[in-house]
Every structure is written in structure tokens, then in C-alpha cells.
């Protein structure tokens, strides 16, 4: 088993559906990477979901003025995990924020464990989660080929930015992570 806790960030229909305004072009590639990782983490996996707030406040008002389609309740179909993950998600945490390093996820990871991140989008929710967890003192590994960005360039730039945070944040790939010796 691979050491750490895997957080699968926002593998939701709204990012998987090519017709969605928030479609992630390489979602299927990220999903393949996530599927490869899941068995190595057993029950040490948390799936996250981005949800719109009931009533946006502050700067979120301008954000949802730009994306009004997303102002839907938590049970709306666009917020569901994509079909391939819906039945695999034993633990799910929801947040109306880009960053998913919220108390529920932090409690599952624990103070001395490492957080392994996969999902979408590299340049938004993955990046926001990685930096917040690192600030909290958690070792973070971002699995590049189990993530996808808004586009290839944004994905690569986000990975480069996260590499600047070494040793708190380290970018790796599925094969290298799975080749590490277990705990």
C-alpha cells in the first residue's frame, strides 16, 4: 500500500461533460490516473465535490454573475461525481470553495500523514488545495498524470508553480508513486 491519504478533487459531471462551460478537456486522462491510484490507498481515499453556495457572498457574487449556470442546489446532476466514481466514493466532502483543505479533509489526513492529490482542475481546485495543505504543514504530493487542467498550458503552469513549494509540495506521477515502498 502507498503511504498517505489520497484526495480525489472534484471528479464531477460538470467537469467531465464536454458540453459544460467548465469542461476539462483531459478529464478522461485524469480519471484513468485516479483509477490506477485507488487500489493502492484502500479506504484512505476522500473524494471532494465543488458546490455552489446557496447565496454567494463577497467576491463570489461576481464569480457567479459570470457563471450563473452553476447556481444550482447540491443535489443537482452537474455536482454529482462522474459515473465511474460515484460507486467508488466511500467518503465524500463538499465545499463551496476552490480549496478543499477544509476541516473534514484535514481530519481524515491527520497531522503527520501526507496528502496525495489527484483530480481537476490542476490550475484551480488542486492548486488551491495543495497550497492550503502545505501551509498547514502537511506534506503534499500532486500526481501530475492523475490531474487535468482547464487546458494543457494551464495544467503545466500550475504544476511548475507547485514545484516552487518544494519540499512542502512535490509533483510526481502515477508510476513513480506506486513504485514507492509501502509504510
In short:
With 183 residues, the chain is α/β, with parallel strands linked by helices. It has helices at 13-16, 27-41, 60-66, 83-86, 103-109, 122-135, 152-163, 174-179; strands spanning 5-9, 45-50, 92-95, 114-120, 139-148, 169-172.
**Total E-strand runs:** 6
Number of helices: 8
Are there runs of 5+ residues with pLDDT below 50, and where?
A: none
Report the structural category.
Answer: alpha/beta
Q: Strand count, sense and closure of the main sheet?
A: 6 strands, parallel
Provide the spatial order of strands within the biggest beta sheet: 3-2-1-4-5-6
| Helix-strand topology string | EHHEHHEHEHEHEH
Strand content: 15-25%
Q: Give the overall form.
A: globular
Query: Radius of gyration, Cα only, in angstroms?
Result: 15 Å
Mean of all residue-level pLDDT scores: 96
N-C termini distance: 7 Å
Helix content: 25-40%
Can you characterise this structure?
The protein is an alpha/beta fold and 183 residues long. The protein has helices spanning 13-16, 27-41, 60-66, 83-86, 103-109, 122-135, 152-163, 174-179, and strands at residues 5-9, 45-50, 92-95, 114-120, 139-148, 169-172. It is built from eight helices and six strands, in the order βααβααβαβαβαβα. It has a six-stranded parallel sheet with strand order 3-2-1-4-5-6. The mean pLDDT is 96.
